[in-house]
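STRUCTURE:
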């Protein structure tokens, strides 16, 4: 309570501070002396507007002003002609806050203009009354307003007198009651809440202690251990009844607290909502009272304004607190309790952001530590979500969090997502073919929920409310409330319209995106499910883990599932970007290997969201079926949907530095506050002017400006068929330093070209050769299929997993090319009644020749972990069974009998790989069916049994052709200072060959290949070109001599993993160009290592690159899907050119975002400069000029700056992302200094003009609170015109394309707007009085005054000027001088930016003082 009182006293002191200050003009005497030193004569007040004349009888009006009415009508006291004047008519001469008029008083004169010679502002009332009386021909002096005039009086109302303010007026009583109710309800509820929660905690501890004693006396050791498993100390200290939850991912920790409703809390919450609206209502009341002469405060402007300031602080703090604690407020009005009593749960979860900084200096660390400390103190360092605590039919409690059901487990006293142990091996899963009972399925559905990902998309109203529930909007609207209050409502309306428009656009775009995600995530259909031993038609939402369901052709897979029987072809392009449908195979009941749905088990797994292109039965009257393993958000698709719905916050370097910038701008605002108090106004007016300055320093458009470049870049990428689902990543693309490439399908063409085979000599008799122990040797390399021996042809035609769908081959592209080249025919008969997997027939080469088919008896599909596949083939010609094993040549060498491998195996394979060939090896085994018990016995063999005792039989060779545009785009990336790296599953020598062909490896560079040696148990390095001459070399010596002899490194997958295990990989990471034989997990690890060194991009075809694409800072999937959820970017243009385009647009977007930032910061700095001058001279600009600046100039130019296109070529460096970097600071501070010098020069030039001296603006004659009266003078016109040129030209200054955007003149929208605005302001500067200029109070004046000085008055209505001079028309020669000075200002700033910030000066300084950047070999 004491703290609350202190806060209230501070608010009162802050509110009253402006009332305790006063100010006067500081350094010069207004209208004191002429240029020659003589004192200024008293001026003539031109065209002074006289007050209304009021008389007792209209006959007393001067003849020329006497009103008259038509016959039958009477002139009444309200100034109108009526048939009858009733007593209730109010006289126009009556005044608010003044005594009532006695008798009838008629208005007879609306006032006219007159000149007042020898005008002295200290004698204003006396001089004006005398001059106006003379003007209407009155013979005697006319008194001022009085309630009972004798004959006539002036109708100018006196200051309202509503009596003495005693602070017991109704408005004060209402304020006391309202704020008192707020304090009473909040404090009272807090005390009540703490008391109730203390009681609940005591009961909880008492019951827990009783349970502990029971377990100690009677419980088993396991029960005791479970009972004594307490939450961590930090959690218990935070709350005795909270529970600590460790989720499936170790980095994610959650604290879960239970709450229940309370009748008093519900009442206080409803009262809180009413009070929130009451805050708004009271601010509306105060604003209305401002325009009604402070009548609620008995006309006391100072007290009313002070109360408004105090209420404004409370209003801001209240709504800022509501926004900051919006997720905690509902539970604040509930009672925290145990899980057993709870109706709601509050989930608190740490969510660290990914922060990408170029460097980490002291200031950044300090600000970040301060921010973290503040968040920790306020409890804002965790993300808070409230969910309803629900019960299943059996009474088990659960809640939904991030689309996932968390179930309460009494044994652990924790809420966790439930997981079922369906089995660990392939055999365990394959045997579960009986489905579930309805009872078991119902229990499982209670634990995991329905198989349906419900995505909440708010309606438009709620979406708008959500958009506005952020701190910056609170800042914007509370500041704009000052505009509405302080007679600045025109600009307030304009700014509000801009903010609302941008917010509505953001809401519409976000809603469209959320509806797309909802459409993708929410899926239901009908399917056949095996329940209680019967097939039943149910909704896919009813599927639970363990359910067996029918896989129907053309349907979308509803869950992640393992295939139990049948042949399936699945189209996974929408999920992974895999370009071709994938053939899937059932699990085997005899396979003891552990099931891994992402690894080896992927070929037997169908994933949620994929489409079943083909579903073919292999058993008669038994449908193709699969067993669900994961449902809902547990599926791979569900995890991806969660990542889209609840992404990790990405914070780029300027997101961090913008906080420092805002602190600096706020400090500038405090300077403006001090200057306003000292120089400008007294009382509360100074506070209002300072708050306006802060509002204009921290522009409301600043957040939008930082993302507009991203939106424009996303649109341009879309035109290039590059789609983005995460806009902030576009800016990261602009800072990419390391770019990782998959090889096949990315750098090289989609398909490999069959280049023949090289079998061992006399391969058709390989069995006899092994029996006779004939030393194996390679035969000739046959490029044509017909020249290849029959056994090798059979291996090529059968050792694959190709199938046919709609007359199109489906399978691995390498397998398809190999099979197509064999010219054998795949029979497309149904396999329901057959004992074979596939039947394949050889081509008929001669008329009448029999095509004896071969049957695939058994097949084990290719898996990355084994790097091989195998088939058992029955040859109907010889009735023999052949086993063919195909895979990577290194792997086949390991698997084969060593005496069957030619001695020159390594040399031959290395030579083929070195020449750019993709090499696979084949091994063979012939089986005697009588020895093993026939075909039926062999069908029960596992993979290891089938693939044992095999003999190497030959190599299958493919050519890996580079894409036509790969080399030129790799060269462009290297030109742009981007290091390119190859991460491939192919052989190292093939990778090196392609790297050389595409230009990744520097021409003439020596390439050292690192491979793991089992004998030496280390990585050995050798020259790929001269392996015998330079083998096992010292790689460190070569790297030290890099400048003399360029060297690049390549490593195999085994070498990579050894280097990782030995913690040596980081030493060589940025010297390794090719990472070969990398598994999908290896690719992820490799990308993550590069991410430690710099911002890393990854591209691949989306198949086995999914993990790496997701892991990288910038991932681009070369997928046919319009928007892939595999990575932030996807493209259907399968070319490295897409990568170049992404970086090009990313750099352009980053440069544009920094440009927009600098433009709006300069807007604030020019505004600060303008404010300081207005404070000093007690002047301002006209309302229409403010509107022109804040709406038309700033908004449109901010948009136009973002229209700059990215440069055609990549520059050899990246754009800065540092808002406080030396280049950004030099640009901004230099322009500020130049603008200050020219503005000072303009006023120096003005004060040297004879016509100006003695016609200076005298602020003592006007009320500064009526700011709109302060623009009708020379000082305001000069200030406004010079600053207008600055506001406009700043956009052009920052439009220089430099290295990352096209030339400045190619931004046509900006050039058109810039020229248009310059022409308009030049017209205002140079033209004589005219309608357009007078609209903005430039070179204009009161109409009668303009006629006096020889100008034709404009036709439009002009509000009379309030200065004695009556106009601000500058002489013709001075206008041209001022225009020349403004043009000189523009030229100076343009030259400074072009020559100093971006030009030769920058080049020299960058060379002299280089910035420490990541040094890489591009």
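SEQUENCE:
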């Amino acid at each position: 309570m004491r703290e609350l009182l202190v806060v209230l006293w501070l608010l009162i002191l802050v509110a009253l501070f402006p009332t305790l200050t006063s100010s006067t003009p500081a350094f010069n005497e207004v209208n004191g002396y002429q240029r020659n030193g003589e004192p200024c004569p008293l001026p003539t007040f031109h065209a002074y507007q006289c007050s209304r004349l009021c008389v007792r009888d209209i006959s007393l009006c001067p003849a020329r002003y006497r009103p008259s009415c038509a016959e039958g009508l009477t002139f009444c006291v309200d100034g109108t002609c009526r048939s009858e004047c009733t007593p209730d008519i109010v006289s126009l001469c009556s005044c608010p806050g003044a005594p009532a008029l006695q008798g009838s008083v008629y208005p007879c004169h609306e006032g006219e203009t007159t000149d007042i010679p020898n005008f002295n502002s200290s004698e204003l009332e006396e001089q004006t009354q005398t001059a106006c009386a003379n003007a209407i021909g009155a013979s005697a002096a006319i008194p001022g307003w009085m309630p009972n005039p004798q004959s006539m009086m002036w109708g100018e109302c006196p200051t309202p007198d509503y009596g003495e303010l005693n602070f017991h007026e109704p408005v004060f009583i209402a304020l006391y009651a309202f704020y008192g109710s707020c304090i009473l309800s909040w404090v009272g509820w807090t005390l009540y809440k703490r008391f109730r929660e203390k009681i609940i905690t005591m009961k909880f501890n008492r019951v827990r202690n009783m349970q502990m004693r029971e377990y100690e006396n009677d419980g088993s050791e396991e029960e005791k251990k479970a009972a004594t498993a307490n939450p961590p100390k930090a959690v218990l200290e935070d709350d005795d009844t909270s529970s600590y939850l460790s989720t499936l991912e170790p980095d994610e920790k959650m604290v879960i607290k239970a709450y229940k409703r309370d009748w008093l809390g519900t009442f206080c919450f409803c009262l809180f909502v009413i009070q929130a609206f009451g805050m708004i209502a009271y601010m509306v009341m105060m604003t209305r009272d401002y325009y009604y002469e402070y009548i609620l405060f008995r006309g006391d402007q100072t007290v009313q304004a002070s109360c408004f300031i105090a209420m404004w602080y409370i209003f801001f703090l209240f709504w800022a607190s509501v926004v900051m604690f919006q997720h905690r407020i509902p539970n604040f009005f509930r009672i925290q309790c145990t899980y057993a009593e709870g109706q709601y749960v509050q989930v608190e979860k740490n969510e660290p952001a990914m922060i990408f900084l170029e460097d980490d200096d002291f200031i950044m660390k300090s600000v970040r530590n301060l921010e973290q400390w503040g968040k920790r103190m306020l409890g804002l360092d965790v993300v808070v979500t409230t969910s309803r605590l629900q019960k299943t039919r059996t009474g088990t409690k659960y809640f939904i969090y991030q689309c996932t059901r968390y179930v309460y487990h009494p044994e652990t006293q924790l809420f966790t997502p439930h997981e079922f142990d369906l089995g660990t091996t392939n055999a365990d899963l394959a045997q579960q073919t009986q489905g579930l009972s309805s009872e078991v399925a119902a229990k499982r559905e209670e634990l995991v929920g329905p198989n349906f990902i419900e995505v909440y998309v708010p309606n438009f109203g709620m979406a708008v409310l959500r958009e506005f529930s952020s701190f910056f909007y609170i800042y914007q609207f509370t500041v704009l409330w000052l505009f509405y209050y302080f007679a600045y409502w025109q600009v307030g309306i304009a700014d509000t319209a801009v903010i609302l428009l941008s917010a509505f656009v953001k809401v519409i775009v976000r809603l469209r995106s959320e509806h797309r995600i909802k459409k993708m995530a929410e899926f239901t259909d009908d399917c056949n499910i095996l329940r209680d031993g019967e097939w039943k038609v149910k909704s896919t939402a009813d599927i639970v883990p363990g359910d067996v369901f029918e896989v129907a052709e053309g349907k979308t897979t509803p869950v992640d599932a393992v295939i139990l029987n049948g042949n399936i072809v699945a189209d996974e392009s929408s999920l992974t970007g895999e370009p071709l449908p994938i053939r899937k195979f059932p699990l085997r009941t005899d396979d003891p290997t552990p099931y891994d749905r992402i690894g080896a088990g992927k070929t037997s797994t169908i994933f949620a969201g994929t489409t079943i292109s083909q579903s073919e039965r292999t058993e008669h009257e038994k449908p193709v079926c699969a067993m669900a393993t994961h449902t809902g958000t547990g599926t791979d698709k569900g995890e991806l949907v969660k990542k889209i719905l609840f992404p990790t916050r990405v914070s780029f370097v300027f997101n961090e530095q913008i906080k420092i910038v805002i602190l600096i701008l706020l400090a500038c605002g405090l300077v403006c506050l001090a200057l306003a108090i000292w120089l400008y106004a007294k009382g509360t007016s100074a506070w209002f002017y300072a708050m306006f300055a802060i509002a204009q320093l921290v522009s409301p458009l600043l957040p939008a400006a930082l993302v507009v470049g991203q939106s424009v870049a996303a649109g341009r990428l879309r035109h290039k068929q590059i789609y983005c689902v995460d806009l902030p990543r576009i800016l990261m693309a602009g800072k990419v330093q390391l770019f990782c490439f998959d090889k096949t399908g990315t750098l090289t063409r989609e398909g490999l070209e069959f280049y023949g085979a090289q079998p061992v000599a006399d391969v058709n008799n390989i069995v006899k050769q092994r029996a006779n122990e004939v030393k194996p040797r390679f035969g000739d390399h046959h490029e044509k299929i017909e020249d290849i021996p029959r056994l090798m042809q059979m291996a090529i035609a059968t050792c694959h997993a190709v199938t046919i769908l709609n007359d199109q081959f489906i399978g691995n592209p390498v397998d398809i090319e190999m099979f197509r080249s064999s010219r054998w025919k795949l029979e497309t008969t149904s396999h329901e009644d057959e004992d074979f997997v596939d039947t394949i027939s050889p081509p008929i080469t001669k008329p009448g020749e029999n095509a004896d088919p071969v049957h695939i008896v058994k097949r084990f599909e290719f898996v990355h972990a084994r790097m091989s596949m195998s088939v058992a083939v029955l040859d109907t010609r010889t009735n023999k069974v052949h086993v063919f094993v195909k895979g990577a040549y290194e792997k086949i060498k390991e698997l084969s009998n060593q005496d069957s491998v030619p001695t020159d195996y390594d040399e031959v394979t290395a030579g083929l790989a070195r020449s750019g060939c993709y090499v696979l090896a084949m091994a063979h085994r012939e089986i005697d069916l009588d020895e093993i018990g026939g075909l039926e016995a062999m069908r029960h063999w596992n993979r290891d049994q089938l693939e044992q005792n095999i003999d190497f039989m030959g190599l299958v060779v493919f050519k890996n052709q580079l894409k036509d545009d790969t080399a030129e785009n790799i060269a462009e990336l290297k030109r742009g200072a981007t290091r390119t790296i190859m991460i491939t599953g192919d052989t190292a020598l093939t990778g090196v060959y392609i790297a050389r062909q595409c230009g990744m490896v520097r021409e003439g560079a020596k390439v050292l290949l690192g491979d793991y040696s089992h004998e030496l148990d280390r990585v050995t390095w050798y020259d790929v070109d001269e392996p015998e001459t330079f083998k096992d070399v010292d790689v460190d010596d070569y790297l030290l001599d890099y400048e003399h002899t360029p060297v690049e490194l390549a490593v195999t997958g085994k070498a990579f993993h050894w280097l990782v295990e030995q913690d040596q990989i980081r030493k060589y990471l940025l010297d390794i160009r090719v990472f070969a034989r990398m598994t999908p997990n290896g690719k992820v690890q490799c990308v993550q290592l590069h991410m430690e060194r710099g911002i890393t991009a990854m591209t691949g075809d989306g198949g086995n690159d999914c993990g790496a694409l997701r892991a990288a800072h910038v991932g681009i999937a070369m997928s046919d899907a319009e928007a892939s959820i595999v990575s932030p970017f996807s493209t259907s243009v399968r070319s490295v050119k897409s990568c170049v385009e992404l970086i090009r647009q990313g750099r352009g977007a980053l440069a544009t975002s920094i440009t927009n930032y600098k433009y709006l910061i300069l807007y604030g700095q020019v505004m600060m400069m303008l404010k300081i001058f207005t404070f000093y001279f007690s002047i301002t600009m006209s309302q229409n000029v403010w509107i022109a600046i804040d709406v038309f100039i700033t908004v449109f130019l901010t948009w136009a700056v973002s229209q700059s296109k990215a440069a055609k070529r990549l520059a050899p460096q990246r754009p800065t992302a540092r808002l406080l970097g030396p280049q950004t600071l030099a640009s901004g501070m230099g322009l500020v200094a130049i603008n200050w010098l020219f503005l000072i020069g303009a006023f120096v030039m003005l004060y040297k003009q004879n016509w100006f001296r003695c016609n200076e603006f005298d602020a003592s004659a006007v009320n500064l609170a009526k700011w709109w009266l302060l623009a009708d003078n020379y000082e305001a016109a000069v200030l406004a015109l010079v600053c207008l040129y600055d506001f406009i030209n700043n956009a052009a200054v920052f439009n220089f394309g430099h290295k990352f955007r096209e030339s400045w003149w190619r931004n046509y929208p900006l050039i058109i707007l810039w020229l248009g605005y310059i022409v308009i302001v030049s017209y205002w500067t140079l033209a004589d009085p005219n309608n357009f200029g007078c609209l903005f109070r430039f070179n204009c004046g009161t109409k009668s005054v303009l006629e006096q000085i020889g100008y034709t008055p404009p036709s439009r209505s002009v509000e009379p000027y309030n200065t004695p001079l009556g106009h601000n028309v500058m002489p013709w020669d001075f206008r041209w001088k001022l225009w020349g000075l403004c043009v000189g200002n523009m030229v100076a700033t343009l030259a400074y930016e072009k020559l100093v910030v971006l030009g030769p000066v920058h080049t020299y300084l960058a060379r002299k003082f280089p910035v420490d950047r990541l040094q890489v070999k591009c």
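REMARK: The first strand starts at residue 45 and ends at 49.
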